[in-house]
Specification:
Layout: H1 2-5, E1 29-35, H2 44-56, E2 58-67, H3 71-77
Parallel strand pairs: 1-2
């Protein structure tokens, strides 16, 4: 997914693949997206730490987009 996304990079758009808890940046971001990061973190404390870390990397008016899904969740929506 990142390999395909990097084809769209420009001076204003950059895609990163990293361990969010060890990711360091001097810059703040307008948008941070995460796909299946929270759902694959086994503890509540770990999930909270990840969300707080992403929040710390956002500009004051930035947006955090979390894409979380599971087959079980989808199936329960269809019942």
């Amino acid at each position: 997914m990142i390999k395909i996304a990097k084809r769209s990079e420009s001076s204003r758009i950059k895609f990163e693949h990293a361990d969010i808890l060890s990711f360091k940046s001097e810059k703040k971001f307008d948008i941070i997206t995460s796909c299946r990061c929270i759902i694959n973190t086994p503890t509540d404390q770990g999930q909270i730490a990840i969300i707080r870390k992403m929040e710390s990397l956002l500009n004051p008016s930035g947006h955090l987009i979390l894409v979380e899904r599971s087959k079980q969740g989808l199936n329960s929506l269809n019942n």
